[in-house]
From TrEMBL:
The chain crosses the membrane at residues 52-71. This is Uncharacterized protein. The lineage of its organism: Bacteria, Bacillati, Actinomycetota, Actinomycetes, Propionibacteriales. The keyword Transmembrane helix applies. Keywords: Membrane, Transmembrane, Transmembrane helix. Pfam families: EACC1.
Length: 120
């Protein structure tokens, strides 16, 4: 089936999370990346009483290699998120959270994480 990266916008307000993920999907469509919707419930150990988070799964790989495009789109999209919002990227059992880091730090984190799984 290939490798998928789940992108979850960790936000207590489901409407804001939904808008954010819809925006990300629109931006990813411009690069014709393969996507699928996923619904994620509260991560284990999370604080608060949020009932659901919105997410999108994006296929890594393909003819031209999607990682450079995905890095660019995610960096820009995360950079526009509110400082209280965190974004979780998950591939298999491996995940990272990206928050209000500088744009350069975000890019380095995302790039290292995705490239680690690119050859999987």
């Amino acid at each position: 089936m290939g490798v998928w990266v789940d992108v979850v916008l960790l936000e207590d307000d489901p409407e804001i999370a939904d808008r954010g993920i819809r925006q990300l999907r629109r931006e990813l469509r411009a690069y014709e990346l393969e996507m699928r919707a996923v619904e994620v419930t509260d991560p284990e150990g999370s604080k608060g009483d949020a009932t659901a988070f919105n997410a999108v799964a994006i296929a890594l790989g393909g003819a031209g290699g999607t990682v450079p495009y995905l890095i660019s789109v995610l960096r820009d999209w995360i950079g526009r998120r509110s400082t209280s919002q965190r974004v979780q990227l998950t591939i298999g059992a491996d995940s990272i959270e990206v928050d209000a880091a500088s744009a350069e730090e975000q890019q380095q984190l995302i790039e290292a994480f995705l490239r680690k799984h690119e050859a999987s």
